[in-house]
Amino acid sequence: MGLLENRFQDNVVVASMDKLLSWARSASPWFFQFGLACCAIEMMATAASRYDLMRIGMLPRSSPRQADVMIVAGTVTMKMALRIKKLYEQMADPKYVIAMGSCATSGGPYWQYGYHVLKGVDLVIPVDVYIPGCPPRPEALIEGLLKLQEKIKTDRPLTKKIA
Amino acid sequence: MSDEQAKLIQEAVAKALAGDMDMINNIEDRVTRSKAKAALVKAKREAKKSSATESEKPTSAPPVKPSAGDEKLSFIDEVVAKALAGDMDAINNIEDRITRSKAKAALVKAKREAKKAAVTSEETPQVESIPAEKSLNQKVAEAIEKKFPSSLTGDDVDGHIQLKGDDWFNIAHYLKDNPDFLFDSLQCITGFDLGLENDLEVRYNLHSMTHNHAIEIRIQTDRKNPKIPSVEQVWRIGDWFERETYDMYGIIFEGHRNMTRILLPDDWEGWPLLKDYEAQETYHGIVVPKVKEGWE
């Protein structure tokens, strides 16, 4: 949104433009195609023809630079945590993160004793939507993505944010 | 059920009991046929139950069956006796399939009983027959002892072979190349922590594709300074196996060309599968919680 972003004072009415932009963003959040564990299988199933993510405007991109949404699908190990962080930093704004499954939200079955597992990906990067389940069914993932779309729609990218 | 049907069924069952199954099988109506068959089964069962007091039965049919059965039984006994004497043709030539299989079953039973009786009556011959051939483990252990003296530790070679680590690389080469053994496949390397007071141990599972036989080699190494010769250049798969063992136990495989961690990050501290392992506090600023109790 470069030139226009956050440039207008509150007294300038940009409401319709804001709405248009956030609506446009919400309609095609392309997600970053990578999987860490069994949740990735459900994510693949969701993207495949039976559940067909493309009907809500989502398709997988293989580069973080082309993606808007990062779906963290699976167990995040300590070793992977650093790489996840790096990948997140490589994504262009606006960017969103979905923590899919118990492992990504809280460490899941490794909650107590897994020395090698990050207890929730939100310790490393900000998360927008959490999807519970082990792994969540495709319906749950779609629900989460629709929630994310709702969230994107409430964004007001042009209005200047006051602390 | 109509009277006509009932009559038909009764007649058919009577005939079937007398040995003529055609009448039942030729009943056209499916329901009637199945009813007739059910009645037949019932009649047979009753006949069996009361075969001792068969004369009391009013129906004419049942007495036929037991006597037929008796005939069969005595026939089977006869055939089994012949087979035990070595003449299997007697059984194999029985035309009726059911009788034949019954006869065979009886033969197996008779043989088993004969065997049991033999065992209980004379136990010594069995014990004598055991040490006829050396087990693979004994053969391998002897071969190693001959080629590499005093590299075995412990006399017990049942189940596994315990070795000293020093000559392991050469022994591995020998086991792989010796035409008698040809252990061309290293199937698994397992690390073991035998407890805080004891050593670490590495177990190798070897298998030969040619001979289709397998052994287990165990090598112990000092807990303070764990070192074992690498067999990565003998079996290529040993590369990753040894790196994983190193990753989890800190056992250094000397001669390995890339002795680095394989699963954990390179800058991880400690060896997670050791009994005295304590996870580090943080990793690159991320807290490594050991035990988390309850929700905040």
Q: Tally the helices of chain A: what do you get? A: 5
Please identify, by name, the CATH architecture of the largest domain in chain B: 2-Layer Sandwich
CATH fold naming of the largest domain in chain B:
Beta Polymerase, domain 2
Q: How confident is the prediction overall: mean pLDDT of chain A?
A: 87
What structural class is derived from the secondary structure elements of chain A? alpha/beta
Q: How many beta strands in the DSSP annotation of chain B?
A: 8
- What kind of assembly state do the chains in view correspond to? heterodimer
Total domain modules of chain B? 2
Order of helices and strands of chain B: HHHHHHHHEHEEEEHEEE
Describe the protein in words.
The complex is a heterodimer of chains A (163) and B (296). Chain A is an alpha/beta fold. Helices cover 36% and strands 10% of the residues of chain A. Chain A has five helices and five strands; from the N terminus they run H-E-H-E-E-H-E-H-E-H. Chain A has a five-stranded parallel sheet with strand order 2-1-3-4-5. In chain A, strand 3, helix 3 and strand 4 (96-100) form a beta-alpha-beta unit. Chain A is globular and about 55 Å long. The model of chain A has no long low-confidence stretch (mean pLDDT 87). With 296 residues, chain B is of the alpha/beta class. Chain B has two domains: 3-56 and 65-125, no CATH class; 136-287, Beta Polymerase, domain 2 (2-Layer Sandwich), CATH 3.30.460. Chain B is built from ten helices and eight strands. Chain B has helices at 3-17, 22-25, 30-49, 64-84, 89-92, 97-121, 124-129, 136-147, 168-177, 238-249; strands at residues 161-163, 185-193, 200-208, 213-221, 227-229, 252-254, 282-283, 286-287. In chain B, the strands form three sheets. In chain B, strands 1-4-3-2 form a four-stranded mixed sheet. In chain B, helix 1 (3-17) crosses helix 3 and helix 4 crosses helix 6. Chain A binds chain B through residues 78-79, 81-82, 111-113, 115-116, 118-119, 123-124, and chain B through 264-265, 268, 272, 279, 283-284, 286-292.
